[in-house]
């Protein structure tokens, strides 16, 4: 149940941590923390992948431009 309620909480809606602790049990807050941490790790992974792809494309473009000059 804690995980279900934690999923209904939106991280962007959390403005006051004190109010969060007044409204929810520590178990529910731990569920939210786990979800936020998992989302954060997923976003890091996606960002690394995107940067790698963009870098490869940039290198291909640079090679193409170099070939055009020859």
UniProtKB/TrEMBL annotation:
Subcellular location: Golgi apparatus membrane
Superkingdom to which the source organism belongs: Eukaryota
Biological process annotations from GO: intra-Golgi vesicle-mediated transport; protein transport
Gene Ontology cellular component annotations, sorted alphabetically: Golgi membrane; Golgi transport complex
UniProt keyword list: Golgi apparatus, Membrane, Protein transport, Transport
Pfam families according to UniProt: VPS51_Exo84_N
Transmembrane segments: none
Major localization class: Golgi
Membrane-topology annotation of the record: Peripheral membrane protein
Tagged with keyword Phosphoprotein: no
PANTHER family: CONSERVED OLIGOMERIC GOLGI COMPLEX SUBUNIT 1
Record-stated family: Belongs to the COG1 family.
Protein name: Conserved oligomeric Golgi complex subunit 1
Origin species: Pleurodeles waltl (Iberian ribbed newt)
Phylogenetic classification of the source organism: Eukaryota, Metazoa, Chordata, Craniata, Vertebrata
